[in-house]
Amino acid sequence: MINYHLSKRQTWFQLLLATSVITVSNISVSASQSLAIDITDVIKGTVQYVQIANISDEQEIEIGKQTNQQVLSQYQLYNNSQIQQYVSDLGQELVSASDSRDIPFNFQVVSSDEVNAFATPGGFVYVTTGLLKTAENRAQLASVMAHEIAHINEKHGVKALKQAVAAQGIAGAAGVETSQLAQIAYQLTLDLPQSRSFEYEADNSGLKILQQSGYPAQAFADFLAKLESSGNTPEFIRTHPTSENRIKAISQNTQISNSNKGQDPTEYSNNVLSLL
After folding, report:
1. What is the spatial distance between Cα 224 and Cα 104, in angstroms, rounded to a whole number?
2. From the candidates 114, 199, 203, 222, which is the catalytic residue?
3. What is the pTM of this model?
4. Which of the ends of the chain has fewer CB neighbours closer than 10 A, N or C?
5. Does 203 participate in catalysis according to the annotation?
6. What's the CA dihedral at 155, 251, 197, 53 to 10 degrees?
7. What local confidence, expressed as pLDDT, does residue 73 receive?
8. CB 84 within 8 A of CB 275
């Protein structure tokens, strides 16, 4: 997840960062809530339960769809079909050219001045208009999206969800109701930064995706360095590895490439910046 501005509702979550394990005592889902379901809904099959230890791809996708509804209740989709298509096409290009998971990926642009990108379980990736305005070219945008795709490929959202459910102790014999999992996934996505190990893993996997797609992997380090120099250091860099160490690690893992793919600022300006 890439988040450059700390919102008021996030401040209390920073206390959780003192540990290396995700703490979820403040997530508002209780065991009693898991039981507050009309039995007729269960009989009719309108309530779906998930065995948290073995979440299938299909169940993850359903959790992602419900989480997406909650995300879009907070963020408004950017109302420009050309921008949406550009980002979607780029995302599908990255998925198709790499060893990504065989699930549907959905890429959406949301209206927000925050310079941010994030992913939820089930293949949903979000990019803010603020981030689009900050990127200088297609390769830099691709580098951020590859990082978010990597989170999905590595199932970081699912792993965090399992940790949250275990810590909260809400899993019954039948499992956990899908809508509850979606609520937890939503809160984890928007309120809790990814763990240090998840971010490093997404860095490495994201670079591979970028290189497999023909884009210069150095674009990610360049983009992060630009943000740091401007004073808008992403939260996932501030709260985990230091900016300098993170960029250094990315640069060291970057293979030398002569590729100039996606580095034409005019192309990006004409297809993205001019429409924002």
Report:
1. 28
2. 203
3. 0.78
4. C
5. yes
6. 10
7. 95
8. no
